[in-house]
């Protein structure tokens, strides 16, 4: 992956990587013992994996090429893995290398070690004052981007370090932490001795904010403001859409990491943003981004063909709340920008076919659905659209374009449902869908 030049590209990557995975088989299970040496900027790892997918009698995994395999044990027997096997396709993380091992009947155990910095922009590192590990560095064995696994991570942090991770974390003995995730998700660990650990409460909803104690005061104020917006967004969505799960409250965790590179990502409940962007945000406003990510606690669909629903609805909700919090002009000007960008992109695959042309992912997953939902809301009113969305989320993550359409017929009535159906398969973006119908200037 290269440096992101435009927010559109960054957002596409977020969508692809943060998007829910498609389960083909039962998820694999990883048990990860991670030894960290922040002072020496190094790490070593032992992973026990069961349920690895195999092709015939081989399982192929990918690991950052900066890491050195020291021992591979398959079903209790030591084996020689094939490093960089002939004919292996390049993996999406350029720094990773393919490793072939015999297909385990039960367990594969891989031991490896290497330098702390696994990506040049610092997004994956073990350093004296920062640990930030996620799949972007290939620090654990990967099989495919959309292949889920559940995991347990055990590690130790130096005394006085504060950490954030996905999954359920407990401190087992002084300094040792144990995190488990029954949900298939990326293994993320972020920790620093410099983090101040605060929480912000709005409307009875809390969010957590981690930021370095040496960040400029202005940056800390922006961070606290964003944590407030995250809490507000979750309180509002719970009112509008109902609880995410019976008895479960959303508690977003905003982590501002002191490293290079523009990459932001979310692995709920974590929303990870470079600290430097607090005072120099890119083209995508931070408040809109935080609201969009919080909306994903609710807005989830499975499979690339249905990604437009989770992304488009999250973007719509983020824009609606941005209007409430920052004024309707802010919301409208964002929609106007999308309208112009969609117009400039011209004719191309429809929303329903986005997965066949990923170059239009940002237009079709974010911009066109947000414009369409805004146009429908302008026709039916906000309460009616909220009823539609509430029923949509009640269907869980099994949403498809077909269920979206049939729910539109049931809750919004025939004329709106017809309009939605037509726009979802339209290659153009006319005014009825929220686009521009004006004649195009001849140049
Ligand atoms: Zn999203």
Automatic annotation (TrEMBL):
Protein name per Swiss-Prot or TrEMBL: Peptidase M1 membrane alanine aminopeptidase domain-containing protein
Signal peptide as annotated in the record: 1-23
Biological source species: Brevundimonas aurifodinae
Claim: Signal is one of the keywords in the record: yes
UniProt KW keywords: Signal
Keyword Signal recorded: yes
């Amino acid at each position: 992956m290269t440096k992101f030049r435009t927010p559109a590209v960054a957002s596409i990557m977020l969508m692809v990587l943060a998007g829910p995975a498609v389960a083909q088989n039962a998820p694999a299970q990883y048990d990860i013992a991670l030894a960290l040496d922040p002072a020496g900027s190094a790490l070593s790892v032992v992973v026990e994996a069961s349920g690895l997918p195999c092709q015939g009698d081989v399982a192929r995994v990918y690991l950052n090429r900066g890491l050195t395999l020291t021992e591979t044990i398959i079903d209790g027997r030591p084996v020689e893995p094939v490093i960089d096997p002939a004919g292996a396709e390049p993996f999406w993380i350029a720094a990773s290398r393919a490793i072939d091992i015999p297909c385990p009947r039960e367990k594969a155990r891989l031991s490896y070690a290497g330098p702390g910095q696994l990506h040049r922009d610092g997004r994956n590192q073990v350093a004296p004052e920062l640990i930030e590990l996620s799949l972007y560095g290939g620090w654990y064995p990967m099989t495919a981007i959309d292949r889920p696994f559940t995991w347990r991570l055990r590690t130790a942090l130096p005394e006085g370090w504060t950490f954030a991770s996905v999954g359920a974390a407990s401190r087992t003995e002084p300094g040792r932490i144990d995190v488990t995730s029954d949900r298939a998700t990326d293994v993320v660990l972020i920790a620093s001795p410099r983090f101040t650990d605060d929480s912000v409460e709005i409307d009875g909803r809390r969010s957590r904010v981690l930021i370095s104690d040496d960040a400029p005061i202005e940056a800390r104020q922006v961070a606290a403001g964003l944590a407030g917006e995250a809490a507000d967004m979750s309180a509002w969505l719970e009112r509008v859409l109902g609880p995410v799960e019976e008895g479960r409250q959303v508690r977003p965790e905003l982590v501002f990491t002191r490293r290079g590179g523009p990459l932001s990502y979310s692995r709920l409940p974590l929303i990870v943003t470079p600290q430097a962007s607090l005072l120099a945000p890119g083209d995508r406003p931070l408040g809109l981004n935080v609201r969009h990510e919080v909306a994903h606690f609710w807005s989830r669909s499975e499979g690339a063909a249905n990604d437009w629903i989770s992304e488009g609805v999250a973007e719509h909700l983020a824009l609606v709340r941005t209007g409430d919090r920052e004024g309707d002009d802010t919301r409208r000007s964002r929609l106007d920008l999308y309208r112009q960008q969609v117009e400039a992109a011209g004719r191309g695959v429809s929303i329903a076919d986005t997965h066949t042309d990923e170059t239009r992912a940002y237009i079709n997953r974010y911009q066109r659905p947000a414009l369409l939902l805004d146009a429908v809301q302008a026709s039916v009113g906000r309460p009616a659209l909220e009823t539609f969305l509430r029923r949509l989320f009640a269907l869980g993550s099994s949403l498809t374009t077909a269920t979206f359409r049939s729910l539109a017929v049931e809750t919004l009535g025939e004329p709106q449902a017809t309009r939605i159906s037509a726009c979802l398969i339209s290659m153009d973006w006319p005014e009825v869908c929220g686009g521009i119908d004006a004649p195009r200037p001849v140049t």
